Amino acid sequence: MEVRWDVFLIIIGSALVTFLPRVLPLIVLSRMELPEWGIRWLNYVPISVMAALIGQELFVQDEHFSLLNYIELLAAIPTVLIAMKTKSLLGTVVAGMVSIMVLRYFF
Amino acid sequence: MSQEELQVKSPATPRNEDSFIQGVKDCIPTLLGYLSIGFAAGVLEKTAGLSILEIILLSAILYAGSAQFIAAGMIAAGSAATPIMITIFFVNLRHILLSAALSPYFRHLTPFKNMLVGSLLTDETFGVAINKVARRNQLNEKWMHGLNLTAYLNWIFANVAGAYFGQWISDPEKFGLDFALPAMFIGLLILAIVSRKKVKLDVIVAICAVVIAVGVAFVYPGNVGVIVATVVASTIGMVIEKWK
């Protein structure tokens, strides 16, 4: 049940960089507004960061480009389709987990 | 219901609509999602070598699903604190949008109360709140706290449950738990694209982000790729939109 010092630092640091974007707009934007280009840029951040993370998860292994984890690539296909069909985060996560379980069973 | 009953009940309705308890009730539809994703996060955090107390602190202080998955993965891979924090910063930068979108409905609150509302903001509670707001121009603080706190406690519970059962799951890959993270990102990406009605441009930006992230990983190992891809692909989207 111990808490390591370096893990604690990671938790506090990560929490701080998460806390600020959560609260600053609520506090500040009741007084001022972001410039238009800033809002536009921020609008694309969720898309970019999610896509980049998916790319990293699916195509990068041991820090290098790889098509070796083809089972994950295959499992991504039904996961995307279910996400488009159900528009549910829970449904998508379950679909992804079931897909990869089934694929690993056969390959 | 008789006419008489309606007349008795109607004056009380606005107050009930805004109560803490109503916020708790409005959170219920999202609870199953929190439970399952939190459970998966707890299992992965445990298998990444975190202690139960560390997992409680992680879910209670950080309180962000995707960030916790990333922290668990990078801690397991032996990553240093700074790259973990930078990656999590970019992943959670999207909260600026959620917080900014809610700000007009909390103009009546003090900065400190706004901070309390924002500190427990998540994708899901934002979704519930923005649905509620469709019929009014102000959100009640108590209702928002009911919604936020229910989600928060449920999330910590789910993480601890996952960590507890994770002790006996020696091989999380067998249950596809390692795929919960990429599946969650796929879900968040598709949900974001579907809800915005800018599909073509969003898909272009997404493809750019994947190509840049993978390309950078080719020449420069680590998590720099995600950061570069986020900055460059978002700028590409902004420029194309402006130029059109």
From TrEMBL, chain A:
Pfam name, any one: AzlD
Keywords, comma-separated and alphabetical: Membrane, Transmembrane, Transmembrane helix
InterPro entries assigned: Brnchd-chn_aa_trnsp_AzlD
Domain of life: Bacteria
TM regions (residue ranges): 7-29, 41-60, 67-83, 89-106
Coiled coil: none
Full protein name: Branched-chain amino acid ABC transporter
Acyltransferase among keywords: no
Record has Transmembrane as a keyword: yes
TrEMBL record, chain B:
UniProt KW Glycoprotein keyword: no
Topological category with respect to the lipid bilayer: Multi-pass membrane protein
Top-level taxon of the source organism: Bacteria
Matches recorded under InterPro entries: Brnchd-chn_aa_trnsp_permease
Subcellular location: Cell membrane
Segments crossing the lipid bilayer: 20-44, 56-78, 84-106, 149-169, 175-194, 201-220, 226-243
Pfam families per UniProt: AzlC
Signal peptide boundaries: none
Primary location class: membrane
A biological-process GO annotation: L-valine transmembrane transport
Keyword list, A-Z: Cell membrane, Membrane, Transmembrane, Transmembrane helix, Transport
An example Gene Ontology CC term for this record: plasma membrane
Record family assignment: Belongs to the AzlC family.
PANTHER family xref list: INNER MEMBRANE PROTEIN YGAZ
Protein name: Branched-chain amino acid ABC transporter permease
Gene name for this UniProt entry: azlC
